[in-house]
Amino acid sequence: GLVNCCTIDWFTEWPADALQEVASKQMEEEAGMEDNIKQALCAVFATCHRSTSDMSGEMLSKLKRKNYVTPTNYLEFVNGYRSLLAEKRKQIGGKATKLRGGLLKLGETEVQVGAMQIVAKEKKIVVAQAKKDCEELLVTIVQDKRVADEQEKLVTAEATKIGKEAEEANAIAFECQAGLDKAMPALAEAEAALNVLTKKDMSELKAYAKPPALVELCLKGVMTVLKKSPTWEEAKKQLGDANFLLKLLEFDKDQLIDALLSKIKKFTDLPDFSADSVGKVSGAARGLCQWVHAMYTYGSVAKDVAPKRAKLKAAQDALAKKQKALGEAQAQLKEVLDKVQRLKDTYEKSTAEKQQLEDELADLELKLERAEKLVNGLAGEKVRWEASITLYEGQITNLPGDVVIAAAFMSYAGPFPSEYRDQLVAQTWLPEVKKLGIPSSAAFDFALFLADPSDVRDWNIQGLPADAFSTENGVVVTRGRRWPLLIDPQGQGNKWIRQMEKPHGLKVVTLAMSDMVRKMENAIQFGDPVLIQDVLEEIDPILEPVLSKSFIKKGNNIMIKLGDKEVDYSPDFRLYLTSKLNNPHYTPEVSTKVTIVNFAVKEQGLEAQLLNIVVQKERPDLDKQKNELVVKVANGKRTIAELEDTILDLLSNATGSLLDNIELINTLNDSKTTSEEVNESLKIAEETGIKIEEASSLYRPCSVRAAILYFVLYDLANVDPMYQFSLDAYNDIFLLSINKSPKSDNLTERIQHLNDFHTFAVYKYTSRGLFEAHKLLLSLQMCIRILQSSNQINMEEWQFFLKGGMVLDRSQQPENPAPGWISELSWDNIVELENVPHFKGIVQSFEQNSPAWEDWYRNAEPENPEKAELPGEWESKCNELQRMIFVRCLRMDRTEKSATNYVANSLGRRFVEPPVLDLYETYGDSTPLAPLIFVLSPGVDPTANLRQLAAAKGLGDRFFSVALGQGQAPVATKLISTATVEGNWVFLANCHLMLSWLPELQKIIERFEDVAPHENFRLWLSSNPTPSFPLAILQRGLKMTTEPPKGLRANLARLYQTCVTDESYAECRTVHKYSKLLFALTYFHAVMLERRKFRTLGINIPYDFNDTDYSVSDDVLKAYLDAYEDTPWDALKYLISEANYGGRVTDEIDRRVLAGYLNQYFCEDALAVPNYPLSSLKDYYIPPEGPLQSYRDYIMTLPMQDRPEAFGQHPNADISYMITDSSITLESCLSLQPKTGGGGGGKKPEDIVNTIIDDMLSQVPQPFNHEQLMKDKADDPSPLHVTLFQEVERYNILLRNILSTLTLLKKGIKGLVVMSADLDEIFDALVSNKVPAIYLKAYPSLKPLGSWTRDLLARLEQLSLWIKETYPKVYWLAGFTYPSCFLTAVLQTTARRNAIPIDTLSFEFSVINLDEKEMTQPPKEGVYVKNMYLEGAGWDFENGCLTDPEPMELIVNMPIILMKPTDGKKKNSKGVYQCPLYMYPVRTGSRERPSFMVFVDLKSGSCDSDFWIKRGTALLLALAT
Questions:
Q1: Pairwise CA distance, residues 53 & 591, whole Å
Q2: Is the pLDDT of residue 227 over 90?
Q3: What's the CA gap between 1264 and 1288, in Å, rounded?
Q4: CA-CA distance, 152 to 339, in Å (whole number)?
Q5: Averaged over 419-440, what is the pLDDT?
Q6: Whose CA is closest to 1291, among 1323, 1251, 1335, 1338?
Q7: How far apart are CA 1082 and CA 1088, in angstroms?
């Protein structure tokens, strides 16, 4: 319907040119930037976007972390670039402008201060002199008083006489002046004209290369007056004199003698030499022309007045002498009169003058002092500011490149771990910026570029780790344009945000809170910050408008929609989201609305934190110093910055002279003193800091070890979702280790003690919460990571140990020298091992020294160098890991054991002997605030043990348990609330049955810190492993795994302790039968539980038989023994094996196992034969009748370790399950390794996959021609041909799938197509040498990739031969995708040929001891089938029957079997074992594809059918190798 009714439009990833076009459009509006830089930037934008997309693909393949890079990210990146560029320009430009303003003011002030210093110096001399004169004056006044009266008479007479002579001289002067006054107007006018002229006018005249004629004439006239050469050159020279106009104004007019006047007259008489004529040509020349005329006029007049002036001169000379005399007389007279007048107030006046002079001097000295302060105070600033301005100018130049990297980082880098960020910035973006010539800083640092160092220091104090990665995260969180979503599994980001926003009224909510929306509403309105914690992969849609910042403008108000309400939006509102998920997968919709920031703690960051913890505890003095220093340095640097800002503000706002600005001068003085003190203390602080760092770094080995161990625990979550460990809890263990580990004054010893103690403490703490199967994995991971940190391990060899070798094409492989004992897979491993540098020559060693290698291979303990030396030189040249590689290649069953020895030899024996769960010890480690969590395994209930513990602690009556399930939530909630007050214990069992209520439980647990529960209160939880269990509870809680006891002895002992009591034992009246049969029943129960360890050899489906099954069977046994005199064996066996235990059994073949055991244990001999054997081992028998205690005592004599014979198994069964266990351990270990190239000599995963793809594409053929085949075989429409057609069709689908996906994947690796989820899965599978799941849809298989590919080619070869020729003589049944269809076709063929109903037909089986080559004809009826494998038994080729296998013979290649359809009913004859035939080793198969096909009748040899049933003997069509 969708396809028919819609137009489907595929929106693929934007190509590079589209990205550049979009950016180019946005950048058009960016003014002030060159076009070539804009183009280059657009190319960088596209590169950043594409490279992030590629890096996301790489991160997905290596870390399984999905990150979406969408066009929305890109648009935001480009817009972010523009806004950040504007912001940075303004910010840096503002700083530079401020400093320039400061420098300008400083320059002005320096000039003022210099001038003032001179003035002040001079004035000081003047003031001193004036003071001296004043004092002398007082003496003089007294003397002069006597002379005053006499002088008065003489002066009066002389003055009268001189007055008359002065009148006469004045008359002559008046006359002369009258003559001269005629010339004065012209002179004044000329001077006025000259005054108007400026230097610019002179420059204008001088600028003429060839002046206009009138200008030249005018200047010649001027030169004539000045007695200079009347030429233009001379005129130009004089015009260049700065004082030229002054010379004209001050010209000595008395030099205008007749000769000069006649020369001037030549000019003045010219008609054009007039001010108006000249003025038309040049305004400047006009004034000069007027001046020449004025000089001529003045000179002419002065000539007429000359005789009078001579007379005047004589009169004036005489007058001058007399005036001088008069002046002296008058002065003396005045002085005398003044002195007389002054005598009255001399004393007061001289005193006032003296005071005034002293005040003036003081004021000058003060100003001088201020001036010196100002000059000295700003001297240092000037140098610094000049350097800063140069720096800022450089930064502004580099902004285009720096901002593009910063904006890209803000938009794209958040989700990536540090190594990926470095790769993006340093190896992709920066080189591209440099290559395209965009100006940028030589060494760009994102955090330094966008974060203020003082802010970063504050963040560190608030709890943000101080490493570069965390600082980058801090910047992205605080500066991002979108709200941040922190991937924060350790909760460090959460803590930091809480501390940072605490002063601003932070509101903390979770999405599950009922009042979350109300709290959000209030916060948005009032501008409070909000932290939404414990976010999962889905985010409540109600927050969509808030996340996408969909604002609604109404008038002047900004609103936002929350649910159905519109809420006023405060610009102060801030939102943070944090998630505890390790590796969440957020949809593209979420990714584009929030900034995802990867806050997962890094090893380097954690190291620094743990180092702080060690130093705090070990050297509190250093820690105290360090903390004080941090605060001191932070405050000091802040103070200096504030002082500089204050000075710059005062300078920029100052008006007038700075010398009068007392506030500025005082601030400057204070700041200089403070600055010097601060700088001095910072210098000391830096030196002290270096010493502290050196002293602290001595403890680094402790923090390195502790960080390694934390990440070992952190990685365990990949193995089982319940293995969650919080960093807080880990820090507590570390603190305990520091406190409890042995002390020593020798630092090296102390560090060794602490490391040893903490390593074991972590092992003990963690192993308590791990299942038995994963405890070796923990030890091995700890061991390898510790050795790796000290470079004691070759990683290529380690990767080979985990992965083994992979061979797709064996055509080039050297021939296997001993196929009798070296399997195909082992030989693959050995051949590939040749490529590891240390093992060069290993293939040759096997070829030349095969018997010695076989001896080593057949040794019971090949991993033990004392019991089995490696052949030849290999013993001496191999270390323990290299020896382990040989064990892994040839004896997979001993791999776990060799790994155990490796850990024991590297770390110590105690690391492979996990401590037994001790509830008392666990209780001792617990607190009321943290729940205690039992991680359940089938068949175990910890309730009884808990009750026992509660009773021992005196809390038996205060222990309450509730089994969670529908309707139990209120009961549980009430129990907890009561218990927190009263100090009870609450046990919530089976939490996995109420997953929907667990978030509520999480909130209850989180509130414990606020309500402070009673000190005796404990909350116990139990749950099956489930990925949906809340992480917060798991991380906070103390985890314990509960597993049934291991081994027959432990199981028997437990049942006889818990289920068989003295009362129940005494209930049966027929004690002589009951006691023995009860033991047989108990042994049966223990065997059925323990048999699971053999996996498919033990039982197809591992059933959870529990104590209830046992107790009910016990009751049946009592009832029937008491009710019947003769033991009703058939009834008992039926009720126990078919009803009680059989009720759980869903597989008919498993039901045979139960019946087989009961046939052996429940028989007359069990009662009649003394010490009736329960196995072929003499240790296991039914003890004689006796009291209950006698059975308990007997159980304690049984071996601790069970041999396979105790279960009726062959010793080889141990090898089989140990191979499986080893494979699982290696696979788990491999899954925890960083996803990089491994066994291929450190190759990149992409290179490895490309090689595999090339190999596969070269080998896998094209699909068959199905249509042609049907035409060719149309004349023979037999059921077998129908099967052939169906098989070809199915294989064609597979082949097309392989060829298309591998071709696509190859393109995907090159970046030519988008990597889909399917391609990613195929990539991961190929890297790990596994068959992609998408290929396994054709037929199930457990083979690794190399074997699977070879197997596929063999299958296709069989079909190909059948297509080309005719029916095969011998069929390889495993070569069909559906072998059961083939067998049905065989039956159909017989039915049609013989006209028999197919329902009446069944197969008869005959083993043919002939080689395939000896088969010349197909059988007359039925088919020959080859390549079947016998597991759990050997084959006696001579007698054609089952027999015990040889040691280490796990699989036997069966001879050809004739499967002949017959219509006779099957006889269950004696001596025949109905052997199940399975498609592949997973005997249950799947619901869609069961593995079981048919029962094959095989002669059972000397043993009965039950014997082989207990052995788990079966035929397989395909193996796992």
A1: 13
A2: no
A3: 7
A4: 12
A5: 92
A6: 1338
A7: 10
Give the pLDDT confidence score for residue 1238 in this predicted structure. 37
Q: What is the pTM of this model?
A: 0.74
Q: How far apart are CA 1024 and CA 935, in angstroms?
A: 6
Neighbour count for residue 90 (Cβ, 10 Å): 10
Pairing of strands 1423-1426, 1370-1372: parallel
Could you give the 3-state DSSP secondary structure of residue 552?
A: strand
Between CA 506 and CA 509 the distance in angstroms is 10
- Cα(793)–Cα(802) distance, rounded to whole angstroms? 14
* Residue 536: strand pairing partners: none
Strand residues in 493-611 grouped as ranges (E) = 507-510, 529-533, 551-554, 557-562, 565-568, 574-579, 594-598
Count of Cβ atoms closer than 10 Å to residue 631 Cβ: 12
pLDDT-derived band at 1237 (thresholds 50, 70, 90) equals very low
Tell me how crowded residue 379 is: count the other CB atoms within 10 A of its CB: 12
In angstroms, the Cα distances linking 809 to 1342, 1347, 1350 are: 19, 9, 7
Distance of alpha carbon 721 from the chain centroid: 21
In the chain, what is the straight-line distance between the N-terminal and C-terminal CA atoms, in Å?
46
Query: What is the CB neighbour count within 10 angstroms for residue 344?
Result: 9
Within a 13 Å sphere around the CA of 696, how many CA atoms are in the beta-carbon half? 26
Q: Check residue 141 and give its pLDDT.
A: 67
Alpha carbon of residue 151 to chain centroid: 108
Tens digits of residue pLDDT in 792-844: 999 999 999 998 887 877 778 899 999 989 998 899 999 999 999 999 999 99
Would you state the structure tokens that stand for residue 677, as one six-digit string? Answer: 């003190």
Band (pLDDT 50/70/90 cuts) for residue 1491 is: very high
Q: Distance between CA 1030 and CA 533 in Å, rounded?
A: 13
Q: What is the C-alpha separation between 1126 and 1260, in angstroms, rounded? A: 68
Under 8 Å between Cβ of 777 and 857: no
SS (H, E, C) 1223-1277: HHHHHHHHHCCCCCCCCCCCCCHHHHHHHHHHHHHHHCCCCCCHHHHHHHCCCCC
Report the C-alpha gap between 342 and 739 in whole angstroms. 98
Distance CA 1316, CA 1389 (A): 46
| Distance of alpha carbon 686 from alpha carbon 678, whole angstroms | 12
Helices (H) and strands (E) in the chain, counts: 58, 24
Convert the pLDDT of each residue in 848-882 to its tens digit.
999 999 999 999 899 998 889 999 899 999 999 99
What average pLDDT score do residues 92-97 get? 89
With a cut of 70, say whether residue 354 has pLDDT above it. no
Handedness of CA 123, 128, 129, 135 (dihedral sign): positive
Is 90 exceeded by the pLDDT of residue 274?
no
pLDDT at 145 over 70: no
- SS3 of residue 1288 by DSSP: helix
For residues 926 and 787, is the Cβ–Cβ distance under 8 A? no
Pairwise CA distance, residues 1386 & 1393, whole Å: 11
**The two three-digit tokens of residue 1294, written as one number:** 């597979």
Question: Tens digits of per-residue pLDDT, 388-415?
Answer: 889 999 989 999 999 999 999 999 999 9
236 burial type by CB count under 10 A (0-12 exposed, 13-18 middle, 19+ buried)? middle
Question: Which structure tokens are listed for 184?
Answer: 């004065």
Q: What is the pLDDT of residue 658?
A: 67
Residue-level length of the chain = 1521
The half-sphere exposure of 51 on its side-chain side, counting CA atoms within 13 A, is: 25
DSSP per position, 1103-1161: ----HHHHHHHHHHHHHHHHH-SS--HHHHHIIIIIIITGGG---HHHHHHHHHHHHHH
